[in-house]
Amino acid sequence: MAPPHTDPDRTDPTHSPSLPAGIQAHLGAALRAAYDDAALPLGPELQALVARLAEALAGLDTGAAEAFRRDLVGEVPRLRRRAVTLCNDRTRADDLVQETLLKAWAAQDRFVPGTHLSAWLYTILRNSFYSEHQKRAREVGDPDGLFAASLVSLPAQQGTLDLHDLQAALDRLVPDQREALLLSAVHDLSYEDIATAMECRVGTVKSRINRARARLAELLG
Q: Are the C-beta atoms of 190 and 180 separated by less than 8 Å?
């Protein structure tokens, strides 16, 4: 009889090493510092687009439109930071945010007022990112997923050995596990919000984060 199928994301590792206490305590702070909003100024094209959207939306006179304008513009810094989480460089992150904002603008009639705008925008952002990298992977040929893995990493930092070590380790994580870890450690999302963003179960999110931490323990230990 064949052994029952097991979802690797939902099976908690029983003998995986845990991160040393010092590294575990430092991990979240180091990652948050790398993605700090103040260190990630918007590029000029993205700034111009945000200004144009704000001006256009300001001319709408309904309460719902005003709330959408205020909240959409207010979400840009967080959206930009999440784009940097997904992308390998800030120029591509700006392009991704611009694409997301334009798609959100075009689809604003489909957004339900009172629901979670941040989650809605992140879904657009994430879908746009993975659609683009799947297209590029097909174009360059990426049978082993090496190109795809290179698309998610820490932004480049100079003279920061710890962040370089973390980036090298993060680049070796399974993409779904890396994304779940960064959404938790960098963006401080709850398991429930991560599950919504990644369209999976809460238990799967917990397992992905645990496995990411265990793998980091192996790589950084």
A: no
Contact by Cβ (8 Å): 212, 219: no
Amino acid at 130: Y
pLDDT at 182: 85
Q: Which of the 8 DSSP states describes residue 12? A: -
What pTM did the predictor assign? 0.62
* Domain 36-143: CATH architecture, name and number where available: Orthogonal Bundle (1.10)
Domain ranges of the chain: 36-143, 154-221
Place of tokens 């309904």: 62
Convert 30-46 to b/e letters by CB count within 10 Å (16 or more is b).
bbeebbeeeebebbeeb
Residue carrying the six token digits 């967080």: 78
